[in-house]
Amino acid sequence: MLTSLVCVNEELESNSQASVILVIESVEVTPVNNERKDIIVAGAALFAMFFGAGNLIFPPALGFLSGTSWFFCMLGFFITGVGLPILGVAALAKSGGSLDRFAGRVSPLFAKVMGTAIVLAIGPFLAIPRTGATVYEIGIKPLFPGVSPLTASIAFFAITLFFALKPSSIVDKIGKYLTPILLLIIGMIIIKGVASPMGHAVGKGLTQPLSRGFIEGYQTMDALASILFAGLILSAITAKGYKTAEEQIKLTCKAGLIAGTGLMLVYGGLLYLGATASGTFEAGISKADLIVSITNTIFGAAGQTAMCLAVSAACLTTSIGLAAVVGSWFEKLTHGKLSYEPVVIVTVIFSALIAVSGVEKIVNFSVPLLIIAYPIVIILIALTLLGRNLSSAVFKGAVTGCLIVSVFDALAFLKISTGAAGKLIAKLPFADSGFAWILPALFCAVVMELISTSMHHKPLNQSTLPKS
Predict the structure, then answer these.
(1) Inter-helix orientation angle 127-134/359-386, to 10°
(2) Do 455 and 391 meet the contact criterion of CB atoms below 8 Å apart?
(3) pLDDT at 29
(4) Cβ–Cβ under 8 Å, residues 249 and 96
(5) Among residues 85, 58, 54, which one has the least CA distance to residue 262?
(6) Mean pLDDT across the stretch 194-200?
(7) d(Cα 380, Cα 118) in Å, to the nearest integer?
(8) Structural domain boundaries of the chain?
(9) Which residues form the signal peptide (predicted)?
């Protein structure tokens, strides 16, 4: 998710201990004089935010799983893995970069709960442990097979803790150059893999490839992260001299197109490589082993070593930045009752324990959480972009309907019986494709709006009516 740029939303920017790893150029307040350059810089920053070493494992695995159906899987993956994060930034820009304005239309409490849930998801529960597990499976295991997962996890998170507790410009400088290096390596692999395919895609019998790609795009977690990224991008654009909301939203959307184009090229190329490998490697190969094997097949041991080192360093900077985000968030949320250092220590220890379980188990663990979270984020982004004239009742109703169905979907994924209610939800339109929440969200939004309108309707005062 984040290779070399981790940011905190505007509520956290005042905390001096937040480690913000930037690839965007230093920003000074200057008059608007080169809009094209500013758009390119912002687009590059957005790309660096969303392009992450941990995300490299998903497109090849999806291509490998889909085989000859790779193109439709790619389209679905693009929607949630590329389009939704960019729309998320645009929606937050429209909300002034504020999470409270974005989710506060439901309720202020909901905004805080949602922000906390997102921070925990991209923090100790999912994203931080995934960086450690990815480093072991892609960066250490292929080069040093004798090293145990526990040893690797302790070493990785000890370094993470050291830099997260003492933010250093060294990490910033390392992060500044990691994205170009990693992107260069991946670009070379994709170009050679497309020019000289390692094999041909084979049929895998995958049903509904479009919806499968859509759901797999959740794993990038970039749409969740975009809610925290928007504040920094908006601040950078404002500091460049663009003061009106119209200018800020326009530049953000154009920057999003640049970032989205880059992400589609990288993700699409990796997904295609996975498809061409569908008849080359064994069906049970893990996501991490697949990208390592593809790299080794295309570029040999030297290319594999370069990939391992670049991914490891990139994951480390991500882990440091995310640990800082978690510490800063809870310090701000509790008004200092939970201080930065203890939160970071607990976060890193917790992440280290989960990381030992491996990438595959972490990914499987994340699915039910993302099944609940992503539809809510999609609904909020859509309603925000539709216009400011929508009432809070519409937001509350849509989120309520979406949440109810998403919880049942998550329980169904876990094979937990949900009785008659679960059977009813399974019969809803689009349920087979994983979108059973759409109609309930719309229905509840309409109902809540009607209730709100009727409650606020003032009946005519009988004394003011004309006498017959």
Answers:
(1) 140
(2) no
(3) 41
(4) no
(5) 85
(6) 89
(7) 14
(8) 35-369, 389-455
(9) none
Residue 190 has a CB neighbour count (10 Å cut-off) of 18
236's CB contacts (< 8 A; 6+ apart) are 24, 27, 42, 45
Measuring CA to CA, which residue among 431, 414, 417 is closest to residue 375? 431
The terminus-to-terminus CA distance of the chain in angstroms comes to 72
Tokens representing 62 are 């999806």
- The enclosing H or E element of 20 equals none
- Helix 70-78 to helix 209-216 angle (10° resolution) is 40
What would the DSSP string read from start to end of 130-175?
Answer: HHHHHIIIIIITTT-TTS-HHHHHHHHHHHHHHHHHS--HHHHHHH
State the chain's mean pLDDT as an integer: 83
Q: Is the pLDDT of residue 407 over 70?
A: yes
**pLDDT digits over 373-390, tens only?**
999 999 999 999 887 778
CA 252 to chain centre: 18
* Overall fold of domain 35-369: Amino acid/polyamine transporter I (1.20.1740)
Give the integer Cα–Cα distance in Å for 132 and 96.
Answer: 34
Q: What SS3 state is found at 13?
A: coil
Nearby residues of 408 by Cβ (< 8 Å), 6 or more positions away: 418, 421, 422, 425
The pLDDT of 52-80, averaged and rounded, is 90
**pTM of the entire predicted model:** 0.81
292: Cα within 13 Å, side-chain hemisphere: 20
pLDDT attached to residue 169: 59
Query: Other CB atoms closer than 10 Å to residue 16's CB: what's the count?
Result: 8
User: Do 95 and 227 contact (CB within 8 A), yes or no?
Assistant: no
d(C-alpha 436, C-alpha 343), whole Å: 37
Q: Which pair of structure tokens corresponds to residue 176? A: 């500044």
Please give the single-letter amino acid code of residue 91.
Answer: A
Q: How far apart are CA 249 and CA 52, in angstroms?
A: 25
Distance from C-alpha of 175 to C-alpha of 195, rounded to nearest angstrom = 30
